[in-house]
Design goal:
- The complex is a heterodimer of chains A (about 350) and B (about 400).
- With about 350 residues, chain A is mainly α.
- Chain A is built from 18 helices and 2 strands.
- Helix content of chain A is about 65%, strand content about 0%.
- Chain A has a two-stranded antiparallel sheet.
- In chain A, a hairpin with a 2-residue loop joins β1 and β2.
- Chain B is about 45% helix and about 10% strand.
- Chain B has about 400 residues and is an alpha+beta fold.
- In chain B, a hairpin with a 7-residue loop joins β3 and β4.
- The chains are: A mainly alpha (about 350), B alpha+beta (about 400).
- The interface between A and B is large, with 53 and 44 residues.
Chain lengths: ~350, ~400
């Protein structure tokens, strides 16, 4: 790929405070340089030190911006970084040919494979991977400078995971872009049979039940909220959630049960506080929560978080009837939102 | 994506990736979780990235083979199963130990029990039935008995089954009652040859009448109950005799056969040469079996004053006689007294003893030496199958003339 030589990403670091550099232990750098084995693909010691110093300065050793890192904290910061990946990413961002060769050798096939897995289609996956390669190589410019996404890599996770996550973001952005570019005919065809949900949910959207649920969900810890959203809204399996959080499936199941019990009790309590009897509160719990319009908007979260939302297939009329907003255009969604607000 | 429900700013790719790889500090992880709880887009990105890590392989891409994890040993895979397995093994071990202890106790009890039943047993049921062939056929012998003897002369297996005797006894009862007495002195060898049958024939016939019939039935019942013991006793005696005879040359066997024939000829006019009992038993016994049986006999026998185990013991009316394997005879005149050696008054080596009440009628010839009609009659057999009788165990008279 013909590309203009990249400007060094750490150009601004040439004016680094010498005191910050001196505070870093020289022997630790030498030790890290040997451990990383970056010399195999031609990275020199000076360039390695410069990359480390740039990471330390930009991230302030992983501390808050105003905090001053102690030597032990500095060592812990450098030890916690994925230095081989960080050095490779920064060197590739600088346009080092040997680094690129090494990068392609390491991640070439894996990137293509990940793109195919994300898109679920080989053609789309290869296109996605090729476009991402071009972006990584710095073909895009911003403010007159070539911009390489690898320059934003900070070494906190693996470079391969970072590449996959970036690919997933690109795919989601691509889908969102194509989602908005659907033809008007499809919009009319799909939107016409759909009932107006605003009329259905307006009756209960501002009721005490919605407020009680909103308060109950908001009072749960963030992890419990994430568990319920992933399990009930995204319909992820226990194994997927457990793999994401790094715990056992049984733990996820137990915490989910505990969280739902807590939410139920909290909702009942909130309903009783609002003046309902216990029996009336229990009857109110029989309402389908998808018909509620709380601030978290569970219904819309679920609709837009389903895995099917990102598939390329055209939904059938039955699916459209069940999920009227699945393939709706943004303008229609905005209209619906406006209608709902107006009804509320 | 609904902008209302999504956070204004999403976490960057680095943070999402670090969250998925559990590389975030707790505080930052909580922030990411709180955002993802309300942001379907970030959850979707994380799911897709996670799916890409375990996604399907690209067609045509050949991955290097993954090293297989070392196979776990079957021993380590037992884990919890060790507990019931150990308990089961302990239970089995306890059962085996308990069983062995019980068996040893029973063996000890059997060893300590004196072989009284064997000494009191009636004469054995023999496989010496060929001796019956040489039994004298007297003029008073009636036809049924003759027919039965004819049947006994037919060839039969070497070891005649003793259980067949009760049926024969029933058959013989009528014949014996019709026959006359005077056969109390019938040879012990004949009894051995015909087993309990002749024993039942001879004694009641000498008494006659219902009383004799009752006595005969009682004796038959006793004989049936103690059938096993006399057989063992006879085997011991026969084996002892055989042991001595096997040490001799083959010419001795011929001599033995001749002696037996002579002995039989003295009892009747129709001597019938018949093979000796021990000659029939001998083929089925090896030297090893013989020594084993001897050792068993020595273990279960009573120890005599000379320190040797008794080979045969007979007891009647409080008087006990015993013979050791060397042929020495000892007698106890009353219970609790000591063994008294008896000088040999017989030829050969005494190997077998027997005691039974002497019928009064048959004791006529011995009335001079018999103290009383109810005095028990002892019988002694030597290794030549010759018998002597005694009323006190001390004074013996030959019932069959010794071999010349």
């Amino acid at each position: 790929v013909d590309a203009a030589p990249l400007q060094p990403a750490n150009e601004s670091l040439t004016a680094l405070d010498s005191a910050a550099v001196d505070s870093i232990h020289a022997t630790l750098f030498a030790e890290l340089w040997r451990e990383c084995g970056v010399a195999e693909w031609g990275l020199g010691r000076d360039d390695f030190d410069r990359i480390l110093v740039a990471a330390a300065v930009t991230q302030n050793f992983g501390l808050a911006s105003a905090a001053v890192a102690l030597p032990d904290q500095q060592k812990a910061f450098f030890r916690g970084l994925r230095l081989p990946d960080l050095a490779l990413a920064k060197t590739c961002a600088e346009g080092n040919e040997r680094a690129w060769e090494h990068f392609v050798q390491l991640y070439g096939q894996q990137l293509t494979r990940a793109a195919i897995a994300i898109s679920g289609n080989e053609t789309v996956g290869r296109d996605l991977a090729d476009a991402f390669y071009a972006e990584l190589y710095g073909l895009s410019e911003r403010d007159g400078r070539r911009r390489c996404p690898l320059d934003s890599y900070r070494g906190r996770g693996s470079l391969l995971g970072w590449l996959r996550t970036t690919l997933a973001q690109r795919y989601v952005d691509h889908y969102r872009k194509s989602f908005r570019e659907q033809s008007l005919a499809d919009d009319v065809e799909i939107a016409s049979p759909a009932p107006d949900p605003a009329l259905e949910i307006s009756a209960i959207s501002s009721g005490p039940l919605a407020q009680a649920i909103e308060q109950s969900l908001g009072s749960q810890p963030p992890e419990e909220q994430f568990l319920m959203a992933a399990y009930y809204l995204d319909e992820r399996t226990l194994a997927q959630i457990a793999s994401l959080l790094g715990v056992h499936e049984a733990t996820i199941s137990r915490r989910l049960r505990r969280a739902t019990d807590a939410v139920r009790k909290e909702v009942l309590r909130n309903l009783q506080r609002s003046g309902m009897s216990r029996r009336a509160a229990e009857e109110a719990l029989g309402t389908d929560p998808r018909d509620l319009d709380v601030k978290m908007d569970l219904k819309k979260l679920m609709q837009f978080s389903l895995p099917d939302s990102f598939t390329e297939r055209t939904p059938s009329s039955e699916e459209v009837t069940k999920t009227p907003f699945a393939n709706d255009s943004l303008s229609n969604q905005d209209k619906l939102t406006d209608n709902t607000k107006a009804a509320g | 994506m609904n902008p209302i429900n999504q956070s204004a700013t999403h976490p960057d790719t680095e943070s999402l990736n670090a969250f998925a790889e559990q590389a975030l500090p707790p505080t930052e992880r909580e922030q990411i979780l709180a955002h993802m709880a309300t942001c379907g887009r970030c959850r979707q990105v994380v799911y897709l990235a996670q799916q890409a890590g375990v996604g399907p392989l690209e067609p045509g891409v050949v991955l290097p083979p993954q090293p297989q994890a070392p196979r776990r040993s079957w021993l380590t895979s037992w884990h919890v199963a060790w507990i019931p397995a150990a308990a089961l093994a302990g239970l089995i071990g306890f059962a085996i130990l308990h069983h062995s202890q019980r068996v040893s106790q029973e063996a000890q009890m059997a060893r300590n029990t004196p072989p009284l039943a064997a000494s009191l047993a009636p004469p054995p049921q023999p496989n010496l039935q060929t001796q019956n062939k040489s039994a004298p056929s007297t003029a008073r012998e009636d036809a049924p008995l003759a027919e039965e003897k004819q049947a006994l002369r037919k060839p039969s297996p070497p070891h005649v089954a003793a259980p067949s005797t009760p049926k024969i006894l029933q058959k013989d009862e009528g014949a014996s009652f019709g026959a006359g007495g005077g056969r109390a002195g019938a040879s012990f060898g004949n009894e051995l040859a015909s087993g309990r049958r002749l024993d039942a024939l001879q004694k009641p016939s000498s008494l006659g009448g219902p009383m004799a019939a009752n006595q005969l039935q009682q004796q038959n019942a006793n004989a049936n109950q103690q059938q096993q013991s006399p057989r063992q006793q006879l085997n011991n005696a026969s084996l002892a005799a055989l042991g001595s005879s096997r040490t001799e040359s083959s010419g001795d066997k011929k001599e033995t056969k001749g002696v037996s024939a002579d002995a039989v000829s003295t009892n009747g006019p129709t001597p019938a040469p018949a093979p000796m009992a021990q000659l029939e038993v001998a083929p089925s016994l090896t030297g090893r079996n013989l020594s084993t049986l001897k050792a068993k006999a020595a273990k279960t026998a009573t120890i005599l004053p000379n320190g040797v185990a008794a080979l045969s013991i007979a007891t009647a009316a409080g008087r006990t006689i015993a013979v050791d394997p060397s042929g020495n005879l000892f007698v106890i005149e009353s219970p609790g007294s000591h063994w008294i050696p008896v000088s040999p008054q017989w030829t050969g080596r005494a190997i077998f003893l027997r005691a039974y009440p002497m019928p009064a009628a048959s004791a006529g010839s011995l009335a001079a030496s018999s103290p009383a009609p109810s005095t028990p009659l002892f019988e002694l057999m030597n290794d030549k199958i010759q018998t002597w009788i005694s009323f006190d165990g001390k004074v013996w008279q030959a019932q069959t003339p010794p071999a010349k």
